[in-house]
Amino acid sequence: MPWPTQILPLRTLLAPAPAAGHGSFPRALVPAGSRAFPGALVPCALVVVLLAVLPGAPGLLAGPLSAQATASPGPGDPDGPVVLHAGALFDGTGDELATHVRIVVEDGRITAVGTDVEVPAGAHEVDLSGWTVLPGLMDMHTHITSDPADGYGESRFRDFPGTAALIGAKNARLTLLAGFTTVRNAGASEYADVALRDAINAGMLPGPRILTAGKGLGITGGHCDQTGYRPDLFPETGVEDGVFNGTDEVKAAVRHQIKYGADLIKTCATAGVLSAGTEIGPAQPTPAELETMVEVAAMLDRRVMAHAHGIEGIRNAVRAGVASIDHGAVLDEEIMEEMIQRGTYLVPTMMAFEYVWDAAEAGTLAPWSAEKAREITPIARESHRAAIAAGVPMAFGTDAGVFPHGTNADEFRLLVEAGMSPARALRSATLEAARLLGMEDELGTVEVGRIADLVAVPGNPLEDIELMKEVGFVMKDGRIWLEDGVPAPDAR
C-alpha cells in the first residue's frame, strides 16, 4: 500500500481515538484517529518519523493526498485472497506440526485452513513449502519507545520532546520484522507509546499491534517514579505522572491513564534492577492500593500488569487480582500454587535478567544496578525453573528496551533451557499471550475466523527452538511485511 504523498491534515491527527477495553481492543485492531501528544504526533515530528523509518518512500512532501483507506495495494498488500502453501504448520493449539497445509486469507482474516483446501480464483500464492508457519508472535513486556540505557538516566537532560516517539518508530519496524505482530507495552514517557500505537493503526508506519499502558503507576520514590536526582532538578511527580499515595490517588491515576489512551494499566509492586535509590525486595504499594487499582481498572474494562521482584510485592499483587506478574524473581511454592488457582500469568522476561547480569559482569551497568543484578538474577533463574515445572500459567515477555529491540526471539532459547518444552514455549508467545490479553478469539492460533497474523521459520522449531530467531515471513492483518527474508518496500 503506497504511503500518503502529503502530510495528513491536522484535524485527522487531532481526532479522538474510540474507547476500548481489554476484551476487544478496537484501537489495536482497526485504524483509529490519532491523539496528538506533545512532540510525538504533531505534523513536523510525523514527517521525521516517516523519513527516518522509510527513507525510500517517494514524494512524501509533494503531490495530492492519497487516502490510506482507499489506496491501491502495493507489493506487500495483495489485492484479493492470499494462499500460503505451508510445508508445516504449528497452529498454536497443540504440541505437533501438521504438514502440507494451505491457509487462505481474505480481508485480513483466515478463511480456510487444511490439506485439501481449494485455491480461490485469482489468489496471490506464497510458497512456504520449506517453512513452518506459526501464529504471529506476541511479546507481553516491551518498552518499545526506549533503547538500552544500562541504568543511567542522563537522557532526561539530553533528549528533546518527541525523541521517544522517533525511537519507537525505529523499534516498531525491528519488532515487526522479527515476527512479533503484537506487543503489550509496559510504559513510556510523553505518551509516545499511545502516539506510536495510533500512528501504526492509521497506516503511517510499519509496526506491531500495540496494547499499551501509557505511564506506569507506583508510589512516590518507587520504581515507577523518577528517582536518583536532586529534588530541585524536576517538578515533583504526582497523579498525572502515575505517582500515587493512598487509594484516592490510585483511582485518579488509573482514570488519568485511561483518559489519555491506555489499553491496560501497569504498576510497580516492587522496585527494579535499573531504578536508582531503591531496594529490589520490599513491597511498594499497599495491598489496599493494589486492590483499588485492579477494581477501578476492571470497572473501565482494563487489566493490570504488575512489575514485581520481591515475594511480598508479588503476593500483594496476585491477591489483588492482577492479570500478570512480570519478572517474578522471587517465587515460593505457596504463591505459585495461588497463581495456578487464580490463573495469574507469569511473564518471566528472562532476556532482561541475562542482559543485566552480563552487563554487570562486563562493568557496563550502572553500579547501583549492577549490585542488584548480581543479587537477583540467580534467584530469578531458579524461580522461573520452578514455575515452569509447577505449571504456572506463563506468557512470553522479554522487557525489550532493556536490551536491543528485534532480538526478542532469544527468549525462546532461555525458556527451553529452563525446562519448558519447545511447543509450550511457542504457545506462550501465541495462544497463552492472547489469553492474557483476553483476545484468544482473535489472535494466537491459526484457525478460521482469526486475524491473519502469521509468521514462518525455516525448518522445525520443535526440534531446534533457535530457528525462531530466523523468521523469514511476516504477515500482520493479512498484509505481507516480510517474504523470503526481504521486507516489503514500505518496511525497508
Topology, element by element:
Blueprint: H1 10-14, H2 26-29, H3 43-53, E1 82-89, E2 98-106, E3 109-114, E4 124-135, E5 137-142, H4 155-158, H5 163-177, E6 180-185, H6 192-201, E7 209-212, E8 218-219, E9 243-244, H7 247-259, E10 265-268, H8 287-299, E11 304-308, H9 311-320, E12 324-327, H10 333-342, E13 345-347, H11 350-362, H12 367-390, H13 410-417, H14 422-428, H15 431-437, E14 454-458, E15 473-476, E16 479-483, E17 486-487
Parallel strand pairs: 1-4, 5-6, 6-7, 8-9, 10-11, 11-12, 12-13
Antiparallel strand pairs: 1-2, 2-3, 4-14, 14-15, 15-16, 16-17
Structural write-up:
Mean pLDDT is 84; it is low at 1-75. It contains 15 helices and 17 strands. It has helices spanning 10-14, 26-29, 43-53, 155-158, 163-177, 192-201, 247-259, 287-299, 311-320, 333-342, 350-362, 367-390, 410-417, 422-428, 431-437; strands at 82-89, 98-106, 109-114, 124-135, 137-142, 180-185, 209-212, 218-219, 243-244, 265-268, 304-308, 324-327, 345-347, 454-458, 473-476, 479-483, 486-487. The protein is α/β, with parallel strands linked by helices and 492 residues long. The protein has an eight-stranded mixed beta sheet with strand order 3-2-1-4-14-15-16-17, with no helix packed on it. Strands 10-11-12-13 form a four-stranded parallel beta sheet. The chain has a three-stranded parallel beta sheet with strand order 5-6-7, with helices on both faces. 31% of the residues lie in helices and 18% in strands. It has a domain at 137-408: TIM Barrel, CATH 3.20.20.140.
